[in-house]
């Protein structure tokens, strides 16, 4: 835990939050608080204080009066200032009727009261079995329903380049792997975005290796065209960039930036990333938030030599760094990498991590990852039942998909697979999809799914 605490500031004796009416007002307020020397942090707005995947500013109660003076003087548009003592409470009474230990009952009481769990309690949850495992999954599903509801979120990824300057030991597109490389043109990217727009997808994920060919200007041109033509949400996943680039991307309309920590353990991070720096990755996680984009992160479960203690720290990292979208999936070996012959991650442990992350982080988006769908044919459905609420479609052109294999034998999750997973999990599809158009294309969608 000391490895994480080194980078965690903003520990508040009595935390309060400021919830603004817009991203611009939130960033303006944060800038003013920074200039006044008021320690603060950007966090996902907790349940009961605002919408999912919105951002609040956390600060200590001792600065409350000063913050009120600042927002009044500068005519800040805000929804309210709230004490986090008044947290949303959950009804988990049915869990106590299950065959669980006194230790788990004590943990459930804390979760019900919305009291933060410590690492030992998180580790306990990660190691439960039998009926206690069932209790864990049910508890996560209750919290998911309270925080997010029954409708899943569908996003779509266009993997527009598999060139990468990095040599991560686990990744199939690493620099030294002998694979067929490709780069999509701006026109090709926009054509794929248009297909998603017609289907009704609201957020596109632009993903690539760390490819210097896509300069700031090239990326800004793509971003601005998507915004002008389709007004879609944009998530970037293109690796570490400069601080100014993050601000330019945010100003151009990028909503989210996915930069996975992969593991919060310095030991393990350095083992799997021979040419990356742990401190820099942590710094960039903060820079993304401070630029005004929602931070997306996550990690792999079952990495070689990974421990339960380290997995608990991974979850705590996501909570304490205020990550909005958290993608945890099993480690899967990739052909041609140093980890090619390593054992894949465990399905049940991966599902536990999804469930515990929902319980610990609550009012955030959790994907049922492509990796878990690759590990097991029902993995995505099981993840949705364990607290996940988001599915990411693979929307790379079919002729290129096989060349973007971060891990081998990837399940190319398409809309049909997402519909099936949603149906099997007894969840609902998002309202924003263009169902008339989808039915014209031949998709079978029952009324109860809409």
From TrEMBL:
The keyword Glycoprotein does not apply. CDD domains: Radical_SAM (cd01335). Its cofactor is [4Fe-4S] cluster; [2Fe-2S] cluster. GO terms for biological process: sulfur compound biosynthetic process; water-soluble vitamin biosynthetic process. SMART domains: BATS, Elp3. It comes from the Bacteria. Residues 150-369 form the Radical SAM core domain. One of its GO terms (molecular function) is transferase activity. Pfam families: Radical_SAM, Se_S_carrier. Keywords: 4Fe-4S, Iron, Iron-sulfur, Metal-binding, S-adenosyl-L-methionine. PANTHER family: 3-METHYLORNITHINE SYNTHASE, BIOTIN SYNTHASE. This is Biotin synthase. It comes from Caloranaerobacter azorensis DSM 13643.
């Amino acid at each position: 835990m000391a490895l994480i605490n080194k980078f965690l500031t903003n520990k508040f004796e009595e935390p309060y939050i400021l919830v603004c009416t817009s991203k611009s007002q939130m960033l303006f307020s944060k800038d003013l608080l920074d200039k006044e020397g008021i320690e603060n942090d950007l966090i996902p707005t907790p349940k009961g204080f605002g919408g999912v995947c919105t951002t609040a500013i956390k600060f200590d109660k001792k600065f409350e009066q000063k913050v009120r003076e600042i927002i009044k003087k500068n005519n800040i548009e805000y929804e309210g200032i709230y004490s986090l003592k008044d947290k949303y409470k959950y009804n988990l009474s049915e869990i106590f009727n299950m065959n669980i230990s006194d230790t788990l009952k004590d943990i459930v009481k804390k979760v019900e009261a919305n009291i933060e769990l410590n690492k030992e309690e998180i580790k306990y949850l990660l190691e439960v079995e039998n009926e206690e495992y069932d209790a864990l999954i049910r508890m996560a599903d209750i919290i998911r329903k309270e925080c997010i509801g029954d409708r899943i979120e569908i996003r779509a990824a266009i993997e527009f380049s598999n060139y990468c300057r990095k040599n991560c030991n686990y990744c199939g597109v690493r620099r030294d792997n002998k694979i067929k490389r490709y780069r999509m043109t701006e026109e090709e990217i926009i054509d794929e975005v248009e297909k998603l727009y017609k289907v009704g997808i609201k957020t596109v994920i632009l993903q690539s290796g760390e490819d210097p060919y896509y300069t700031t200007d090239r990326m800004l041109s793509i971003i601005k065209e998507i915004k002008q033509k389709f007004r879609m949400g944009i998530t970037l996943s293109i690796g570490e960039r400069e601080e100014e680039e993050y601000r330019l991307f945010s100003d151009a309309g990028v909503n989210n930036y996915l930069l996975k920590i992969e593991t919060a353990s310095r030991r393990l991070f350095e083992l799997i990333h021979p040419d990356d720096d742990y401190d820099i990755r942590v710094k960039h996680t903060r820079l993304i938030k401070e630029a005004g984009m929602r931070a997306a992160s996550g990690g792999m479960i079952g990495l070689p030599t990974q421990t339960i203690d380290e997995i608990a720290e991974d979850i705590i990292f996501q909570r304490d760094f205020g990550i909005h979208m958290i993608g945890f999936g099993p480690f899967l070996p990739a052909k041609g990498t140093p980890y090619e012959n390593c054992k894949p991650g465990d399905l049940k442990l991966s599902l536990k991590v999804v469930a515990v992350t929902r319980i610990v982080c609550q009012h955030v988006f959790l994907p049922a990852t492509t990796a878990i769908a690759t590990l097991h044919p029902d993995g995505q459905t099981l993840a949705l039942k364990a607290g996940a609420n988001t599915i990411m479609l693979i929307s790379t052109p079919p002729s290129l998909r096989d060349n973007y294999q971060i891990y081998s034998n990837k399940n190319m999750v398409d809309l049909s697979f997402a519909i099936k997973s949603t149906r099997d999990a007894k969840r609902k599809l998002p309202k924003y999809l263009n169902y008339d158009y989808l039915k014209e294309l031949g998709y079978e969608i029952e009324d109860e799914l809409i």
